[in-house]
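A further point concerns the way the authors explain their paired sequence and structure data. Since the whole study asks how a given chain folds, the encoding of that fold should be made plain. A single example would do more here than another paragraph of explanation. An entry of this sort, consisting of the sequence and the corresponding backbone structure tokens, reads as follows:

_____
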Amino acid sequence: MKTLKYFKKQFAVKHFISYFVLIGVILVMAVLSATGALSRSAYSTLTKIGYSMILAVSLNLVVGFLGELSLGHAGFMCVGAYIGCFIFNLLEPVTGSGILTLIIAMLSGGVSAAIFGFIIGVPALRLRGDYLAICTLAFGEIVRNVFKNLPFFGGAKGLNTGLFDRTTLLFVTLVTVLVVLAIVQNLIRSKHGRAITAIRDNEIAARAMGVNVTYYKLLVFVLSAFAAGLSGVLYGKAVGIIRQDNFSYNYSIEILVMVVLGGIGSMNGSLIAATIITAVTVFLQNPPPAIRDALNLGDDTLAIVKTIAYAVILILIIMYNNAPVFAGLREKLSIKKLFAKFKKKDPGNISADEAKWDRITTKIEMDEVLRVDVKKREGELTDPDKPERGAK
């Protein structure tokens, strides 16, 4: 019975909703791709949403579960993109431009980013709060400027990576999202995850209970950097040319916004926020021609409108998530409550319940008045083992 309860708790449906959704998306994309219903821009947008999900989930591991603020996530993505795609260019003449070459490049980019994460993590994780944020921010700026001035990485012109087959790249991206999500969620639900959240809640208490704080901080930092390196390779093969300007601190802040808007510590929220913010960004960068012509937007005006609209959308989302005025609306639109309505069980035939009060045998009638005095009544038998009071 205990084993059954354990499996019900560990393998509850709510823990696998995100997996079911992602698998459903992969199947839908396969059908749409087979029928030719997806355009080139749709492939590009969906791929961008995919690697944005990886970035949001991996950063949430640091910010939401470890409780540390990192602003250098774009720097790890930059390391993975340059090194992974550089290795892809070296292997392509030998192995060809196939999935195997892409997987090797992704692993190379992820490992290289993880190494950088370890190198910067050893001194940086001794810092806390704003100091750690400034240190990681400086790391991101240093990394992208170093790659900018290395000639074999393309210098200021950028590294030409070449476009990968868009259909294959999309499915590889979605499968990578699924794998990264599974690794992160299984880590959080394990005993190691409990140690990580204990560090977040109270580092001194966790250290006193024997938790190796340095080890777990480095583990989270390295794993997060590895996932960012994977997304960097996917980004490089999606855009064709890697330029260091795309990995500025603004992009790190955009990833952090995805984590905050989705809910710190919520993996499903990170996936949803990454989808919404990426879709909004793509829409504002390339609005439909009808809207552009109706508003008479030039390129300069479009850039200003994009910045203002993006800021306004973020403000509205933050107000909706936190303002007390919208508490009633949030409660009505709560996904948990919508699911709870479907989970209500039918009480069935209550009259046939074996636990009804009139079916339970009792020693006394319910309407009988109970005596509460302790005086011995006349003619009442006494316990022979207990002598009467006052008897010699």
